[in-house]
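Help needed: design a sequence for this.
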C-alpha cells in the first residue's frame, strides 16, 4: 500500500514538471553545444589524398559506420574547404558543426591534396585532427566514390 507521504511527494514532483513537446522539430530544438574553438593546427601532413579515413568513438554501432561507408546521398549539408588556409578551415568547420548540430549527418569536402608536396594532404590531416577532437563528432568515414571518395568525409554527430 502507498502511504500519503509518497502520494504527496509524487504529486508535488509531477506538478512542477513541464511536458516535453515531442512534435517540436529537431532543427527547432535549442543548441546544446557551444561553438568549438579548442582546435589545434597541424604542422605536418600525415595522410595522402588516396588514404581512406575511418574513425568512431566507443559505442557507435557498425550499422552507422556502414551507412557512412555506403553514403548518405546528395541532399546532405556539405562544407567545401577547397582554397582555404588551415585556420580559416577550422573556423568554418566550427561554425558549420555548431549551426548544424541538430543534424545527424554532415559532409566535409577537404580535397585530396594532389597539389601538395609528396601527395600528402595537410588539409585532410587537419580535418581528421579537428573531427577526432570535436566533442560532438561520434564518427566519420571517407565518402564512397560517388560522393567525393577520399576527398570528403561523411560525419556522424551526437
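Sure. Designed sequence:
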Amino acid at each position: 500500500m502507498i502511504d500519503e507521504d509518497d502520494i504527496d511527494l509524487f504529486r508535488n514532483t509531477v506538478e512542477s514538471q513541464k511536458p516535453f513537446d515531442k512534435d517540436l522539430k529537431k532543427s527547432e530544438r535549442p543548441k546544446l553545444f557551444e561553438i568549438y574553438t579548442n582546435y589545434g593546427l597541424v604542422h605536418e601532413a600525415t595522410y595522402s589524398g588516396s588514404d581512406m579515413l575511418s574513425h568512431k568513438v566507443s559505442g557507435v554501432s557498425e550499422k552507422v559506420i556502414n551507412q557512412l561507408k555506403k553514403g548518405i546521398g546528395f541532399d546532405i549539408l556539405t562544407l567545401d574547404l577547397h582554397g582555404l588556409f588551415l585556420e580559416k578551415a577550422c573556423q568554418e568547420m566550427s561554425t558549420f558543426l555548431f549551426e548544424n548540430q541538430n543534424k545527424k549527418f554532415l559532409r566535409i569536402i577537404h580535397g585530396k591534396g594532389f597539389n601538395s608536396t609528396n601527395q600528402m594532404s595537410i588539409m585532410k590531416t587537419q580535418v581528421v585532427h579537428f573531427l577526432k577532437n570535436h566533442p560532438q563528432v561520434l564518427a566519420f568515414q571517407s565518402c564512397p566514390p560517388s560522393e567525393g571518395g577520399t576527398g570528403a568525409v561523411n560525419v556522424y554527430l551526437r
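The CA atoms of residues 86 and 147 lie 23 Å apart.
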